[in-house]
Amino acid sequence: MALLIDEPRWWFKERLWSHLVSDSSLDELHAFAEQAGIPRRGFHGDHYDVPEDFYDAVVAHGAVPTPTRELLRKLRAAGLRLSAAQRRSTS
Q: Phi first, then psi: what are they for 43, rounded to 5°?
């Protein structure tokens, strides 16, 4: 069980963002995000968006830096990856 975060490389609202995921459960993901101070509004169905300026703090809190492709592979392997349409309907 691990919390994984990719590098901040996704532009949105003039900021770079990372994705934070769990490789085992959404309950684990929500608990970690709450403890790390990430607001629930950052949750998008299967991941949290994390702004670049919080990346180091989230890693210090225990998230494992992981390349995006590996993060997605582990998310799919856990059965937690949602399709784009499913993610839009949860936002």
A: -85, 135
Cα separation of 47 and 20, whole Å? 5
Number of domains making up the chain: 1
How many other CB atoms are there within 10 angstroms of residue 41's CB atom?
A: 9
Which helix (H) or strand (E) element contains residue 79?
none
- The confidence band for 91, taking pLDDT boundaries of 50, 70 and 90, is low
pLDDT in tens, 32-89: 999 999 999 999 888 999 999 999 999 999 999 999 999 999 988 888 776 655 555 6
Distance CA 40, CA 48 (A): 8
- φ, ψ for residue 11 (rounded to 5)? -80, 130
Rounded Cα distance, 32 and 69, in Å:
22
The residue range of the domain holding 25 is 3-90
Determine contact, residues 1/24, Cβ cutoff 8 Å: yes
